[in-house]
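For reference, the entry.
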Amino acid sequence: MFAQNLFKRLTLRRFAKSRSGVAAVEFALVLGPFFLLTFALAEVAMIGFAQTSLDNGVSSVARLVRTGQAQNGGMGEAQIKARLCQEISDLLAVDCEANLFLDVNSFASFSAASQNNSPIQNGEFEEAGHAYRATQASDIVVVRAYYRWHVMTPMFQPVFQNVNGGNRILVATLMFRNEPFQ
């Protein structure tokens, strides 16, 4: 019995002093958090990239409205939305038909335009009520675009989603006064 206990203690002591395989164990301990951090960083980068693309697309489309090119060119909601989709899909693979919502509206004053009604209610995105309304010269206009972005990594959906179903609504807004175009 004594010899058996002594053997166990010596074996454990020898195991505790051994340094072979330490790198493999340390790597295994660091590997999980490293991949978690890598996937989180990739997810944040994709969301940021999509948001920047949407912002740039809205800026480009809003310029058509602000200068009167859209109105004088007879562009309607379908053409404006197609142009916005083209702007954001140059760099991203996006499904504009199902996920892009455009809202162009004119207001009597800047204070009336600044009243924001969020399209996100109780964790759901309200798809109704977004439309392109033709504007006139010198109107105060708000152009809003909403894109339903699906969070790619299921583990991060609870962190990054702002609506139910693992989606994040990206929003780009531009407020301006139309130029006095003819």
User: Anything to note?
Assistant: The chain has seven helices and five strands. Residues 21-177 form one domain.
